[in-house]
Design brief:
With about 55 residues, the chain is an alpha+beta fold. Helix content is about 30%, strand content about 10%. The protein has two helices and three strands, in the order E-H-H-E-E. It has a three-stranded antiparallel sheet with strand order 1-3-2. Strand 2 and strand 3 form a beta hairpin. It is globular, with a radius of gyration of 11 Å. The mean pLDDT is about 90.
Length: about 55
């Protein structure tokens, strides 16, 4: 079984990765990515890491 990680999302959280976004929205990865794109919440970063703005979602 896969281990689950718990993200601590508070009112001061500015950005989250895809797993944090999945936890906020209570949905799977494809749906969370689509919602992040539609909300234009993706924050441009260098490298492979992708962050999403909590305020825009």
């Amino acid at each position: 079984m896969r281990t689950t990680t718990e993200h601590e999302i508070t009112s001061k959280t500015i950005a989250v990765d895809i797993k944090g976004l999945m936890e906020i929205l209570c949905c799977g990865e494809p749906a969370a990515r689509e919602i992040g794109i539609i909300a234009e919440a993706r924050i441009p970063t260098s490298g492979k890491r992708v962050l999403y703005s909590v305020d825009k979602v």
